[in-house]
């Protein structure tokens, strides 16, 4: 099983749609979880951290299911500017701040 | 807002040549990283650096690679004898400051093309 696994997509959705991405991780001892956004040929940027209780930031909602070892990201009311690759990132619990990236899920929001 | 800066933005080199990629991390960060991303593939961990030494490295980070933080500001990645498969975007990142959210701050990357 890959350390961090995501459906690569692409997800093509119309503007205004709700879209959800999932990510699974293999190491049950992982403690920190994040969603990053990466635009084409740019550096990854933090979208949001994922907390055990779930958290929301505007149109974005992140959930963590430790029992099943998956993380989700929900985007409501998609905008054209949401088109990007969404990277699931999990820390490797090795006593350092090592972060493992998933392959990313490509989202294209269509007008 | 402080940022991570990387140079060069793009380097073209011949196979077998040595390459040094440079990074100036955000000053209050404690952990520094190099990641690479081959075109169309995922962001891969290479090495983490803490307290002036390597804290962890991946299997990709073999004897051809080395890192240094010689003067307390610059953080460099050296590839001793480049191979074609080293062509990738190399990202420097930093994190772990006093106000720790676990966020990694990335530079804009150095694109390496090995011919």
Give the tags.
heterodimer; A: 111 residues; mainly beta; six-stranded mixed β-sheet; five-stranded antiparallel β-sheet; 11 strands; B: 115 residues; seven-stranded mixed β-sheet; four-stranded antiparallel β-sheet; 50% strand; globular
Give the termini distance of chain B in whole angstroms: 37 Å
The averaged pLDDT of chain A comes out at 93
Oligomer: heterodimer
Number of contiguous helices of chain B: 0
Estimated share of beta-strand residues of chain B: over 45%
What is the succession of H and E elements of chain A?
EEEEEEEEEEE
Low-confidence stretches of chain A: none
Q: Indicate the percent of residues in helices of chain A.
A: under 10%
List the helices and strands and how they pair.
The complex is a heterodimer of chains A (111) and B (115).
Chain A: E1 4-6, E2 11-14, E3 19-25, E4 33-38, E5 45-50, E6 55-57, E7 60-65, E8 70-75, E9 84-92, E10 98-101, E11 105-110
Parallel strand pairs in A: 2-11
Antiparallel strand pairs in A: 1-3, 3-8, 4-5, 4-9, 6-7, 7-8, 9-10, 9-11
Chain B: E1 5-7, E2 10-13, E3 19-24, E4 31-37, E5 43-50, E6 53-57, E7 65-68, E8 75-79, E9 88-95, E10 105-106, E11 110-114
Parallel strand pairs in B: 2-11
Antiparallel strand pairs in B: 1-3, 3-8, 4-5, 4-9, 5-6, 7-8, 9-10, 9-11
Write up what this structure looks like.
The complex is a heterodimer of chains A (111) and B (115). Chain A is 0% helix and 54% strand. Chain A is built from no helices and 11 strands. In chain A, β4 (33-38) and β5 form a beta hairpin. Chain B has 115 residues and is mainly beta. Chain B contains no helices and 11 strands. Chain B has strands at 5-7, 10-13, 19-24, 31-37, 43-50, 53-57, 65-68, 75-79, 88-95, 105-106, 110-114. In chain B, 0% of the residues lie in helices and 50% in strands. In chain B, strands 2, 4, 5, 6, 9, 10 and 11 form a 7-stranded mixed β-sheet that branches. In chain B, strands 1-3-8-7 form a 4-stranded antiparallel β-sheet, with no helix packed on it. The interface between A and B is medium-sized, with 23 and 24 residues.
């Amino acid at each position: 099983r890959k350390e961090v696994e995501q459906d690569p997509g692409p997800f093509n959705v119309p503007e205004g749609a709700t879209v959800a991405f999932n990510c699974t991780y293999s190491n049950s001892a992982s403690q920190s979880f994040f969603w990053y956004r990466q635009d084409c040929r740019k550096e990854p940027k933090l979208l949001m951290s994922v907390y055990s209780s779930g958290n929301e930031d505007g149109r974005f909602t992140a959930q963590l299911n430790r029992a099943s070892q998956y993380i989700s990201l929900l985007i409501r009311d998609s905008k054209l500017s949401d088109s990007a690759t969404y990277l699931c990132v999990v820390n490797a619990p090795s006593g350092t701040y090592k972060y493992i990236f998933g392959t990313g899920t490509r989202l294209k929001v269509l007008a | 807002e402080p940022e991570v800066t990387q140079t060069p933005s793009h380097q073209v080199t011949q196979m077998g040549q040595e390459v040094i990629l440079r990074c100036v991390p955000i000053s209050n960060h404690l952990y520094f990283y190099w990641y690479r991303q081959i075109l169309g593939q995922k962001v891969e961990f290479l090495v983490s650096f803490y307290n002036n030494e390597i804290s962890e490295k991946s299997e990709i980070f073999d004897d051809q690679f080395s890192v240094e933080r010689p003067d307390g500001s610059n953080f460099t990645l050296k590839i001793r004898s480049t191979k074609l498969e080293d062509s990738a975007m190399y990202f420097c990142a930093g994190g772990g400051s006093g106000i720790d959210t676990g966020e990694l701050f990335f530079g804009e990357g150095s694109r390496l093309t090995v011919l």
